[in-house]
Amino acid sequence: KMVTACGLFHDIGKFMLPSGLLRKPGKLTPAEFEIVKTHTIEGFHMLNRFNNIPEPVKNAALMHHEKCDGSGYPYGLAKDEIDKFAKIVTIADIFDAMTSERIYRKAMCPFSVIKSFEDDGIQKYELKYILTFLENIVLTYMNNHVRLSDGQIGKIVFVNKMCLSKPMIATEDKFVDLSKEHDLHIEAIL
Fold first, then answer.
1. Is the peptide bond before 56 cis (omega within 30 degrees of 0)?
2. Contact 115, 160 (CB under 8 A)
3. pLDDT tens-digit readout, 128-145
4. Per-residue model confidence as pLDDT tens digits over 101-121
5. I need a labelling partner for 165 at 20 to 30 A (CA). Which of 38, 65, 130, 132 fits?
6. Roughly how many angstroms between the first and final C-alpha of the chain, as a whole number?
7. Confidence tier at 1 by pLDDT (50, 70, 90)
8. CA distances to 12, 46, 72, 99 from 15, in Å
9. DSSP-derived secondary structure letter, 25
10. Can you tell me the distance from the alpha carbon of 141 to that of 155, in angstroms, rounded to the nearest whole number?
11. Beta bridge partners of residue 156, listed in sequence order
12. What's the CA gap between 38 and 34, in Å, rounded?
């Protein structure tokens, strides 16, 4: 229940941003991005006005852009300085942002995002949370039809826990183990 509440309220500070900034059709300028980054502090202050809101919910609003390697914002917190619920919300928030279409860019294929998490997840995210998230999110795509980077169409039939972004695909006439095909990847979920 707590992580759900954290997820529901993590971006509440965006209500304090100038209208239209988040719907801008192009890339934000550095100055505009600095304004957007204030939504974390604004959200914390907004929630902090209420005594009955649990600290983890307030902290998730404040810390959901912090990374375990200290590369996040607003304070550049690292590892144990970040609330555990904020660490979980961060992962879900980034996955959602990258797999959602935006005015200024198309949605990324979920398996490209999973690969990105595999590549830098150990440094930027709490290992137990990123692994749990990735293992579970990949399973939601079981039996989905996909298009591979070479144009083949197939269905996800097996998940390789050692390489979650490269599952086994059943095409019309064969099985393709993407973990053994380094030049082949899932391009789109159909």
1. no
2. no
3. 999 999 999 999 999 999
4. 987 789 999 999 999 999 987
5. 65
6. 33
7. very high
8. 6, 10, 21, 23
9. S
10. 9
11. 169
12. 7
